[in-house]
Amino acid sequence: MAKISVLGAGSWGTALALLLSNNGHEVTLWSVIEQEVEMLKEKREHESKLPGVKLPEDMEITTDLEGCLKDPDVAVLAVPSPFTRSTSHSMAPYVRKGQKIVNVAKGIEEGSFMTLSEIIEQEIPQADVAVLSGPSHAEEVGRGLPTTVCVSARTQETAEYLQGIFMNPVFRVYTTPDILGVELGGSLKNVIALAAGTADGLGYGDNTKAALITRGMAEIARLGVAMGARLETLYGLSGIGDLIVTCASVHSRNRKAGYLMGKGYTMKEAMDEVKMVVEGVYSAKAAKGLSEKYQVEMPIINEVNKVLFEDKAASEAVKDLMLRDKKVENPMLPWEK
Prior knowledge:
By secondary structure, this protein is α/β, with parallel strands linked by helices.
């Protein structure tokens, strides 16, 4: 049995806290929001974000950051990506050297273009930082539906230790050494999911969504390889696997926000309606900045940014994507003649 603290009591943090508790570990769930903690203590359920998923009575739920970081074997950082830096900064004084911290959020920081693990390592240099990612909606993990993810760390030893902590008969965990590829796949797919949801809101069909998923994956792969990620990772669970589920699932907040924008909502109206952090909105500018920095063509990412931040009509963005200059699908493939 391990002693584990989960920081962030949203839907994903709550679902993972329950999973880890069911695995036999001693789990503490932390939130900075006092009202959220009091609600969870009283109801043992996150009624707005994860209804019907009950937490055990013996799970400690707290706002005491110092207390929950007092010698845990593992700290799971599950706050939304825009709050990763501020939370890591607050954690730093209480984290011991070599403390294992597993980031489970997905995003890229606007401005610095840093991945979330890079932010954590910058704010908490004494920590042993890892990443868990893959196609894993909290609503399904909380209900114990079969799910498969991957965990990546700086060392094989840490990755395999965390694999053993999280894995059970309904939650299969693979290991991989490619932290960058895992994080890029997990964050960039949220931007493509906004486009897929927008297409749904516009009333387009399965052909459109398949095109967005496929060509979106091509954009993610081009950028990832240019940055030093492995193509195998991007075509694995944390890349195309997560992209498929986020573009298609009714549980996807990014798809839902895009759907509402396709129906005519503004970005702010859509985010207010979703009532959770839509991480693709925060990653979109960073993705565009990275495409410019590494000189990688990413037309879908560019059009999403125009819809989000330049008030471009979604229907016009689709039209402009369809009317781009003629292209070869795979430029690296040779012709026989």
